[in-house]
Amino acid sequence: MNATMAQMERGCWVRLLAQADTLIGAMLCGTSAAVVSWIAASHDWRVMVPLLFTAVLLLIATIFGLRAGVFGTILAALVFAAVLFTPMGSVHVASASARANLGWMLLIGLGFSLLFAPPTSTFRRH
Predict the structure, then answer these.
(1) pTM (2 d.p.)
(2) CA 82 → CA 45, 86, 88, distances in Å?
């Protein structure tokens, strides 16, 4: 009986750690996207930022796992659409090239998450 309860408790902790990994990874993506948006806001190369940001998405998916990569990609795209591109404060993007680059970032980020994420995150304890 005690062994079964210990296994159930361990399973609960594993699920909790998986959710924490997802949340931490997604928040790192969102925060990084906000910082990069602030840095690139006044530069001409800001349209290319989503494509360059795919390196961060690959890193997050590799360290924190599939769900963190997927949620982080979506959160970063929303941050870029709302903060980096005009009109500000809206997810509508006026520039066709910026929209295309956001679309490519979503596609590449989701692909990286599916292809390179480990079966379990690196931080999970066994």
Answers:
(1) 0.82
(2) 17, 8, 6
